[in-house]
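Below is how a single chain appears once it has passed through the pipeline. First comes the sequence as given, then the structure the pipeline wrote out for it. We keep one example in the README because the format questions we get most often are answered faster by looking than by reading.
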Amino acid sequence: MDFTSPSTTREAPPLDPELSEALAALGPAAREPFTPENLAARQARDATARPRPTARDLRADGRFEVEELRVPGAPGAPDVTLVSARPAGVAGPLPLLYYMHGGGMIMGNAWSVLPKLLRDWALPLELAVISVEYRLAPRTRYPGPLEDCYAGFVWAAEHATALGIDAGRVIVGGKSAGGGLAAALALLARDRGGPAPIGQLLICPMLDDRNDTRSSHQMAGVDVWDRTSNATAWQALLGDRYGAADLPPYAAPARATDLSRLPPAYIEVGAAETFRDEDVAYADALWQAGGQAELHVWPGACHGFDTFAPEAALSRDARDARTRWLRRILARSGNR
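Resulting structure:
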């Protein structure tokens, strides 16, 4: 059966009851699609409404050491801001989670994701976190955002001793657009001979600009991030290169034809989500290339479910699964 070129419309999978209730409470605005016409207004609204905790806020009364860093960008590009954080008072070089925030490549910031990352992983796993403030589309198109992430990644590895991190134990990760950037970063680091991450944490990653999978059609007008929003975001990122036959895999990792020699991946997605089929296909392609991937498809989950329903049973299970994978990857690398 062909799952990549839909010929008929299929009913969307049902939402998990807890998620359905939480989504209904958000009202119809939660499903309002992004379009080229409303993009600028939606970006302005997000920039105003999205939390942006200060370094002082993130230090949480001394529990964390937090520093904002300005590091050189790619040649000809501006400096990149990195927000570096770690548990206070923990001795020795720490493993690092190098993280790219979500937001469809058009929204988000490096600061808003840190409270959760620090609470869920930095403290219990004793790891450092660097969150990247990459430039957003359409003001900055591909490859600008990815080059920001790569420049910061290389800088962090080269300054590992000063940062108190173990350059041999770095995991790249992100959610949604950030997950797509993390996958692209792993490909780029491999092909440029850059620092080699030990894992890639890909949470509902945005991978395929072609936007034509069965799930993208199935969830049209249903998922909180549907194919209309997805097309708007990819067009903002790629401009005239959107949908081009020769688009590089670093722009859209689903385009990659060589997934060999990549670090182990954790990939998760919802069964009732636009990205379902492209993410499942990416895990399968990693296996076929001889790589390692742990795939979770959460039943009844839509895009970003654990953000708007953090206490739902499914959200708790997803957080636990991510933490278990991180713990295993770190334990394996610590026994080298």
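The radius of gyration is 19 Å.

See the next section for the split statistics.
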